[in-house]
Design brief:
globular, 21 helices, about 80% helix, about 525 residues, Na+/H+ antiporter like fold
Length: about 525
C-alpha cells in the first residue's frame, strides 16, 4: 500500500500527458517517454523498479490479447507471408546484425553476449506501432502488417533471447537444439492457445452475467500465457492464438451487452497499461545511466552504432523480402503485385521498440556479463527508435505519396447493402403474418430503403455527387435532435418529473446511438 500514492500520481501524470499529446497531435508514447526521463532526473522522485516478471505477465498478455482479438483474420491470412518474414526472418536477421555490430566495437565481448542484446532489441513494439498507425493514418495494409508482425515477433525474439542467455551462462550452444526448441515452443504455444480459445468460447455463452463473462476474458488472456510458460512453451503465441480464435467466434459467443461493455472495459485496461509502460521506460533511464562506469563518449558511440544496426538491418531486410519473392515466383506476383515503395519504406521505418525489450533486458541474471551495459543499450535503442523514427514519421508521412487502399470502404458499403437487402426480404415475409400491422412494415421499409440508397453507390466504387453532403446533413440534424432530447431529459429530472434511473436508462440509448454514429464517421 505504500506505493499506492506513487502509482496514483503516475496515473494522473499519464492521463494529463496523453490528453496533451492528443491536443498537440503527436503519438502519446513519445511524449510519455520524454516526460518519464525528465521526471527521473527530478530530485526526490522515488525510483520505481520494473519487475520483468510483472511486465511479461501483467503488461504483455492484455496488450497482445486486445490486438489479436480485433485482428481482421482475412487480412492477417492474406499478409501471412509478409508477417512471418518480419516476425521470424527479420527478428533473426536483426539479432545477428546487432550482435555482429556490438562484437566489432567490443571484440572482448563473447558472441553469445552480443547476440543476447540482438535478441532483446529485435522485436518492434505492438503499442508503439498501433499508436503511430492510428495517429498518422497509415495505409490499411501497412497497419495490418505492422500489427500482425507485433503479434508474433515477441515469440521468436524471446526464444532467441533464452537460447543466447543459456549459451552465455553455460558456454554451450547447439543449432539443432535451438531449432528444435523453437519449433516445440511455437507449436506448443499455438496448441494451448487454440485449446483455451475453444474453452472460453464454450464457457462465455453459458455465463449470463456480462460482468463475469468480461472478467473471464481477462483471466483467459493472462492464464493462457501463464499456463504455456509453466509448460515451457511460448506464452506469447498461446495468448495470441486464444484471442484470435475467441475474436473470430465472439459474434456468436458473446451477447450484445457483453460485447459493448467488454470492449469498453478492455479499452480502459489497455489504455492504462500502454500509458504506464512508456512512462516507466523513461523513468528507468536516469537509474540505468548512473550504474555505468564507461566514459560518456564510448557509451554514445555504442548507442549510435546499436541504434543504426537496429534501424538499417530492418530496411536492408525489408526491401528484398518485399520484392524478391515476387520477382522470382510469378504465382506470388500475379496474386499479390509489387507494393508501392513508400508502403515498404513505411513498414521499415515504423520499427519502434518498447516495453518488451526493456523487460527482457531487466530480466537478465545479475551475474550476466556486462549486464548494465546491455540494459543501457536496450534503453537507448528504445529511445532512439521511438523518438527518432517516431517523431520523423510525423514529418515524413504527410509528405510521402499516398497509396491508400479504399477497398475496406467498399467492403463496408457492400456489407451494409447486403444486410439491408436481407432485412427487406425478411420484412416481406413478416408482412404476411397476422400479428404485423402494415403501418409497422412501412416504418421499417423506409428506414431500410434509406440505408440501401446511402451505401449502394459506394458499394459500386462510386459516390453520388450529393451523397456526402446528404450524409453530413443527416448526421448534423440527428446530432442536434439528440442534444435536444438529452436537454429535455435533464430538465425533466431537475423538475422531479423523472428520477435519475429513468434519465440514465433513456440517455444510455442516445449515447449508444451517438457512439455508433461516431464510429461510422
Amino acid at each position: 500500500m505504500k506505493d499506492l500514492p506513487i502509482i496514483l500520481a503516475l496515473m494522473t501524470v499519464m492521463v494529463l500527458l496523453i490528453a496533451l499529446a492528443r491536443k498537440v497531435k503527436i503519438p502519446y508514447p513519445m511524449l510519455l517517454v520524454i516526460a518519464g526521463i525528465a521526471m527521473g532526473f527530478i530530485p526526490g522522485v522515488p525510483h520505481i523498479e520494473v519487475e520483468p516478471e510483472l511486465v511479461f505477465l501483467i503488461f504483455l498478455p492484455p496488450i497482445l490479447a486486445s490486438a489479436a482479438f480485433f485482428t481482421p483474420m482475412r487480412d492477417f491470412k492474406r499478409n501471412l507471408r509478409s508477417i512471418l518474414l518480419l516476425a521470424v526472418g527479420l527478428v533473426l536477421f536483426s539479432t545477428l546484425a546487432v550482435g555482429w555490430t556490438l562484437h566489432q566495437l567490443i571484440p572482448s565481448l563473447p558472441w553469445a553476449v552480443c547476440f543476447t542484446l540482438g535478441a532483446i532489441v529485435a522485436p518492434p513494439d505492438a503499442i508503439a506501432a498501433t499508436a503511430v498507425a492510428e495517429r498518422l493514418g497509415l495505409p490499411h495494409r501497412v497497419v495490418v502488417i505492422l500489427e500482425g508482425e507485433s503479434l508474433v515477433n515477441d515469440a521468436s525474439a524471446l526464444v532467441a533471447y533464452k537460447m543466447a542467455v543459456a549459451a552465455t551462462l553455460t558456454g554451450v550452444f547447439s543449432l539443432s537444439n535451438a531449432v528444435g526448441q523453437f519449433v516445440i515452443a511455437s507449436a506448443g504455444g499455438i496448441a494451448i492457445g487454440l485449446a483455451l480459445g475453444w474453452l472460453i468460447v464454450w464457457v462465455v455463452p453459458r455465463v449470463k452475467d456480462p460482468g463475469v463473462a468480461i472478467v473471464l476474458t481477462f483471466i483467459n488472456a493472462i492464464g493462457s500465457y501463464l499456463i504455456a510458460e509453466k509448460l515451457h512453451v511460448s506464452g506469447v503465441l498461446a495468448t495470441v492464438f486464444t484471442s484470435l480464435y475467441f475474436g473470430q467466434k465472439s459474434s456468436q459467443a458473446m451477447s450484445p451487452q457483453t460485447r459493448v461493455e467488454g470492449a469498453a472495459a478492455w479499452q480502459i485496461v489497455v489504455f492504462l497499461i500502454n500509458g504506464l509502460a512508456f512512462l516507466l521506460i523513461g523513468l528507468q533511464f536516469p537509474v540505468i545511466v548512473g550504474a555505468l562506469k564507461r566514459p560518456p563518449a564510448e557509451l554514445a558511440m555504442l548507442s549510435l552504432a546499436v541504434i543504426g544496426a537496429m534501424i538499417f538491418s530492418r530496411i536492408l531486410w525489408l526491401f528484398p523480402a518485399a520484392y524478391l519473392p515476387r520477382f522470382v515466383f510469378k504465382k506470388i506476383r500475379d496474386r499479390d503485385p509489387y507494393p508501392p515503395v513508400t508502403n515498404v519504406f513505411l513498414v521499415g521505418w515504423s520499427g519502434m521498440r518498447g516495453i518488451v525489450s526493456l523487460a527482457a533486458a531487466l530480466a537478465l541474471p545479475d551475474n550476466f556479463p556486462e549486464r548494465e551495459l546491455l540494459v543501457f543499450l536496450t534503453v537507448m535503442g528504445v529511445l532512439g527508435t521511438l523518438l527518432g523514427q517516431g517523431l520523423s514519421l510525423l514529418y515524413l508521412v504527410p509528405r510521402l505519396p499516398r497509396h491508400e487502399d479504399h477497398s475496406h470502404r467498399k467492403e463496408e458499403a457492400t456489407a451494409r447493402v447486403k444486410a439491408t437487402m436481407a432485412g427487406l426480404r425478411k420484412l416481406e415475409d413478416l408482412s404476411k403474418q397476422d400479428w404485423v400491422e402494415p403501418a409497422h412494415v412501412e416504418v421499417f421499409r423506409k428506414r431500410y430503403d434509406q440505408i440501401h440508397l446511402q451505401y449502394e453507390h459506394r458499394m459500386k466504387g462510386s459516390e453520388h455527387p450529393d451523397a456526402e453532403k446528404f450524409r453530413d446533413t443527416l448526421e448534423r440534424m440527428r446530432e442536434e435532435l439528440i442534444e435536444a432530447e438529452t436537454a429535455a431529459l435533464v430538465n425533466l429530472r431537475d423538475e422531479g418529473v423523472i428520477n435519475d434511473q429513468t434519465l440514465w436508462q433513456v440517455q444510455r440509448e442516445l449515447d449508444l446511438e451517438r457512439l455508433v454514429r461516431a464510429m461510422r464517421t
